[in-house]
Amino acid sequence: MTQRAQPQLVPLDFIARTPPETAERATAFADLMARRRTVRDFSDRPVPRAVIADCLRTAASAPSGANQQPWHFVAIGDPATKARIRAAAEAEERAFYGGRAGDEWLTALAPLGTDAHKPFLETAPWLIVIFAQRHGVGPDGERIKHYYVPESVGIATGLLIAALHNAGLATLTHTPSPMGFLSDICGRPANEKPVILLVAGYPAQGAVVPAIHRKPFEAVASWIEADGR
Ligand code: IYR
């Protein structure tokens, strides 16, 4: 029989809030997050590394499949590395916008006004590359299966974006495709796949964003309640 670890249990550290406090916090957070917008026009105003580190602590607190925490974050503030990333990303984007994307995709992107030009990859103070660990590596180099990797990394990325926005920073979820070049530039091992390049910093003075709309709340949420409402 396989020897399995017994669960070790500790008391839950839970912050008990009153119902009014709960309601107020839920509203306040929804209102804060509703004002998050993806930004493509960044200022070069610096952001302390400690701020990024705290936001990464939030990301790393995410729940994950079998608590394997199958993520790694590389925060890049070095201008020379950012320049390399920009050059490699723009090369992929030129191929993408030059035809690889196909007509349907380019039509879907048209309202965003994006193109292959990615100056923000050098202007913004921080680029955060989010890596997904397709599998883990044990002490003797053995392969450890990871579970729910895309879901876990997606949750961690969501928390990271929320943390950065809550801190007062703007973000862009950028996904140059393919983005294997990020593994080389960041010096990450083959079991890790780069999934998102998150740009973080302050918006440029007078930054504008596309006039887009969120789906109406009724379209994104349904309710099944005992009183038949
Ligand atoms: N990676 C490209 C294209 C792009 C794709 C999607 I889906 C977007 O929501 C936005 C852009 C780029 O960054 O321009």
TrEMBL record:
Instruction: List, in alphabetical order, the Gene Ontology terms for molecular function in this entry.
Output: oxidoreductase activity
Q: Which residues form the signal peptide?
A: none
Q: Which UniProt keywords apply?
A: Flavoprotein, FMN, Oxidoreductase
Q: Which CDD domains match?
A: iodotyrosine_dehalogenase
Q: Which residues form the Nitroreductase domain?
A: 34-202
SUPFAM superfamilies xref list: FMN-dependent nitroreductase-like (SSF55469)
One Pfam match, by short name? Answer: Nitroreductase
Q: Which domain of life is it from?
A: Bacteria
- Report what the protein is called: Nitroreductase family protein
Q: What is the lineage of its organism?
A: Bacteria, Pseudomonadati, Pseudomonadota, Alphaproteobacteria, Hyphomicrobiales
